[in-house]
Every structure is written in C-alpha cells, then in structure tokens.
Automatic annotation (TrEMBL):
Keyword set includes Transmembrane helix: yes
Primary localisation category: membrane
GO molecular function: ligand-gated sodium channel activity
GO cellular component: plasma membrane
Keyword Nucleotidyltransferase: no
Name of the protein: Uncharacterized protein
Subcellular location: Membrane
Length: 560
C-alpha cells in the first residue's frame, strides 16, 4: 500500500481533529466512531439531514422572495392632524339669473343651440346633447359666462374662529358642475389642527342661486342623469394638493339646512419595492397635483379615449396631450345646420361621441386596461371618514337679519331680493303699528292672512337658496393602516437557523468552526510550500550545493 505523504497526513489529521470537536453532532460521530458500520450509518444520517435541510432552506428562500405583506392598524393619539382640502360645487352648474340675461341678447348662441337640439334627432346620443356637458363642449365661452362665481356662491367663510375670503379658495372647472372652489388647495403650508368641533373647523354659508327660470322657458330634463337637476351643493373632502372628483367622491348638501360633516383622519402607509409598487411622485400629465390611484386611472381613461376616438371627454380630467384635441361631443358645423336646416339630414350621426360612449362602456365592464395604465398607490395617503348630520336652518326668527348681514342691502338674486323686501316691509309695518310692549307681544296675532302667506313664501325662498355647511375634525386620533413585510430578512435568518439546527445541529458557531478549518488548511498548505523551497534550489548530479554556490558568489563579488 502506498504510504501517504506528510502533507496529506497533516490535512487528514487536521480534518479529523476538528471533526471530532465539531458541534455538528453527526460529523463528530462519523469521525469518532471506531466501527465501520457505525460510521456508515452516521454518514447516511448526515446526508439525509443535509438533503432535508437543503429542501427546507430552498422553501424558506422562495417564501422570502414572494415579498408578501400584512396590514396592521394602529390608533395614534396626541398628534396634530392636517386639515383636508374642501371642494364645493353648485349642483346646478349654471346660474339661471345669468341664463335669463343671456337669452335676452338677440344673437346668443344658447338660443340657437336649444333650437338645434330640438330640431334635429341624435338617436341614443340625444341625452348627451341635451346635457350640461354638451353645452360646455359646444358653447365654451357662454358656458364660462353662465357658471357660478365665487362672490355670488360663497357668501360667508369662517375657519378656526377666523374670517376667510376669496384668497383662500382656488377655482377649478369640472365638466359636470362647471365652477368648483377648493379651500386649502395645498399651495401653502400645511394647516395642522389641534382642536375639534364645528367652531374649530370650516364654516360656509352658500347661496345656490335657485332663481326663477325665465317665464315660458324651461330646461331640458335629462332622464339618464343621476346627478343633475337638483338644488344644493356637492362637497368633496380630499387630501390637500390632490385633484378632486366631485362626481365620484362628493356629498350632496341640501339647501335650507345646516349640514355638519364630522371627519376622522385615516392614514395609509404602503411599502415600495420589493414588497409593493407605491410611489410618492406627482401625477403624470398634471404635475401640480400629487398622485392618487383613482385620478391616475381617470387620466389614463382620457388618454385611451384620445388614442381610440381622436377626441377627449369633458367628463374626465385634462391631460397634456389633450390641449388641441376637440371634445367628442363637439359638433363643428351646428351653427350652419341650424341656419340652413333643409340642407342637412334630419338624423345627425356623431361618430366621435359614439366612440367615446363605446370605449367608456368597455372600460366600465372590463378593467384589463388598468394594466397598461401603470397606476400605483401613493406610499403615504390620507383619507377621511365622514359622518353627516342635518338641522333646520335658518330659523324664521333670524332670516331677515341673515340677509342683511350677507348682502348688506344689495341683493342681485331675484328670489332672495323678493324675500328680503317682504320681510323688511312686514317688519317696518309692524314697528309702526305697535309701539307699546304689550302690543309687540301680540304682533303675530295682528298679521293678516295675506301677510302670513307672504312671510311663509319669503321664508321658503330663503331656505331654497341658502345653506350652511360645517366641516370639522370630530376626533384628533388618527387611524393608521400600515403595511409591513409578512416575512422579512430577520425571519428568514431565524428560520434558516432553526432548520439547520433541527436537521444538522448546526449553528453560527459551527459555521465559525468550518471557517477555522479552511483557514488552518490554507496555513498548512502555505507552510508545506515554504518547507519545500530549499529542496527546489538544490542542484543534482554532484553539482555545487546552494550554500557553497552562495559562498563562491560572495567571494567573487568581493574580489571584483
């Protein structure tokens, strides 16, 4: 049998030494066992344990690479809460008072448009052509004129016990509601609230301009619309610097009532890659707004309609590519058609509007388009839970004084002006009739039936046109829904340690033993090479030895 070299014997003895001292119990048994059969059994057991540990290790790594998340909720107290943005829109988009003025003009396009809609037939698109959106799509300038203005709409504003005014509001144009006004748009610093209740929130008195229509002239009721042809205000509560969507996220507030909207903040914290795909970026195509998933989808729908129909929808947000794109409901030659109706077919075909309705219906029934939109949730988002309550407002006893405070004697709105005149005259008459305190107590008994009817009508007119809305935080506690890794790196290491300990009896210290073995083997090999260096310098066949050669070389150098 060939005898092992000293180097090999050193390696084997080193492995045997560390194996016998190893904390991995199976390896120690293999090295220390005297009997071959016993050593074989332990070897098989170690191989089985190693295979099982490898399988379970791969399962753990696969579980980690799935990057699953769990959502936990937490109530946070004793912290300031940011006040939201509040957007208010008049449910009736147009001012009937302005419509009356517009119809009095001889060349107003509104007259011709109404005649055009009544004269021609549009099939299934008739409902759209008689809608507010079609009016805006085809008569943009006149639609701008008849919209509600801030000074006529918001008559009183108070926030956190201080007065607020027009400078605190930003106007935006919506295809369904025309003028909408946003408080706390987000241009300035955050408004942090430290108190709750209506007195510490936003209080608005709004005039809905529910005026009498011109006698003999009435609007076209769109039976297919679920949102129009009612009186009141649409209120949207949303995070500052986000785009409001009154149609989808608003609350209807009726006139004649004081509406209280209590808010509770809800914070959503989401994970980014690799656990999620949230983003803190601004909206692509509307960089002045922060990203929200819903608004991103709405803008994506607009891009799809533009791509497929070569037109844009007035019911969706504008995008950068839509600046010079016509509305799908725009009829370019409608003025010529009404001027010479006999030269055009009675049935009007509107391919772009048909395309818009078809594509919109497809996106409503099939959400596969969302994949191409690549919209993601924001990493940090604040929403608000809302509770709404109503109370009768204003009481008849205070109605005259309210009109005096809000309008200061100058009322343009016909119905409110009529109510003010009636109540003012009744008050003056009764003041003149009754001078003693006893007579004042019997003032109500002295009203005639006609005066009572006039007073009731005045009260009704006031309540039909005015409303108050209070929006406030009812709780400073914030509910946070926070995403967390369901299985993070610490869990992976812990499970790997448990797996290796279960199947192999291996711990971190065992791995250090393996590192020690590798280091000692390297040192052993290095020392063996060092010892062999002099042997390689000897010269066989009786030639001069290295020591002798060095001596001769030294002598030669000295003689030189």
């Amino acid at each position: 049998m060939k005898e092992a070299k000293p180097k090999d014997r050193g390696v084997l003895s080193l492995i045997a030494e560390l194996g016998s001292e190893s904390s991995a119990h199976g390896l120690a048994r293999i090295v220390s066992s005297k009997q071959t059969k016993r050593r074989l059994i332990w070897t098989i057991l170690v191989i089985i344990g190693l295979a099982a540990a490898t399988v379970q290790f791969s399962m753990l790594v696969k579980k980690y690479l799935q990057f699953q998340v769990v959502e936990v909720s937490e109530v946070k107290d004793s912290m300031p809460v940011e006040f939201p943005a509040i957007t208010v829109c008049n449910i009736e988009p147009i001012s009937l008072r302005k419509v009356r003025k517009l119809l009095s003009l001889p060349n107003a396009d509104l007259k011709r448009w109404l005649e055009f809609v009544y004269r021609f037939k549009f099939g299934k698109q008739t409902a759209h052509l008689t809608s507010i959106r079609a009016f805006y799509e085809n008569l943009g300038d006149e639609a701008e004129y008849v919209r509600h203005e801030l000074k006529d709409f918001i008559k009183h504003c108070r926030f956190n016990k201080d007065q607020c005014g027009s400078s605190n509001f930003t106007m935006s144009f919506d295809g369904n509601y025309y003028s909408c006004f946003t408080f706390n748009r987000g241009h300035y610093d955050k408004i942090l609230m430290h108190s709750t209740g209506p007195e510490n929130g936003l209080s608005l008195i709004l005039a809905v301009d529910n005026d009498n229509p011109p006698l003999g002239t009435y609007g076209v009721y769109n039976i297919d619309s679920n949102i129009l042809h009612s009186a009141g205000v649409r209120v949207v509560v949303h995070a500052p610097n986000t785009m409001p969507s009154p149609v989808n996220h608003g609350i209807d507030v009726p006139p004649g009532y004081s509406s209280s909207i209590g808010l509770k903040a809800v914070l959503h914290t989401r994970l980014s890659e690799p656990y999620g795909n949230c983003s803190n970026s601004v909206l692509e195509g509307a960089e002045s707004y922060n990203n929200t998933f819903f608004t991103c989808l709405q803008m994506c729908k607009q891009r799809i309609i533009i791509e497929k129909c070569r037109c844009k929808s007035s019911g969706l947000p504008e995008v950068q590519s839509s600046a010079n794109v016509p509305f799908c409901g725009y009829i370019e030659n409608w003025r010529d058609m009404i001027a010479s109706p006999n030269q055009y077919p009675h049935d009007v075909y509107l391919p772009r509007l048909i395309c818009e309705e078809h594509v919109s219906h497809e996106m409503t029934t099939d959400r596969s388009y969302e994949v191409s939109c690549k919209c993601v949730q924001p990493c940090h988002e604040t929403t608000f839970q809302k509770s709404v309550s109503l109370s009768y407002w204003p009481l008849e006893f205070y109605q005259l004084n309210i009109l005096e405070l809000l309008y200061n004697g100058s009322i343009d709105q016909n119905r409110l002006k009529e109510a003010y005149t009636v109540l003012s005259n009744l008050t003056k008459q009764e003041s003149m009739k009754h001078e003693s305190s006893k007579e004042k107590e019997n003032m109500e008994a002295g009203y005639s039936s006609q005066e009572r009817e006039e007073a009731d009508r005045a009260s009704k007119l006031i309540r039909q046109n005015l409303l108050r809305v209070n929006i406030y935080l009812e709780d400073l506690s914030v509910v946070e829904f926070r995403q967390m890794p369901a299985y993070d790196l610490a869990d992976l290491f812990a499970d790997i340690g448990g797996t290796m300990g279960l199947w192999m009896g291996i711990s971190v210290l065992t791995i250090m033993e393996l590192v020690e073995l590798v280091i000692r083997l390297i040192l052993l090999m290095f020392r063996s090479e060092t010892r062999q260096m002099p042997e390689k310098q000897t010269i066989p066949n009786g030639m001069v030895q290295p020591e002798r050669r060095q001596f001769l070389q030294t002598g030669f150098e000295s003689s030189v």
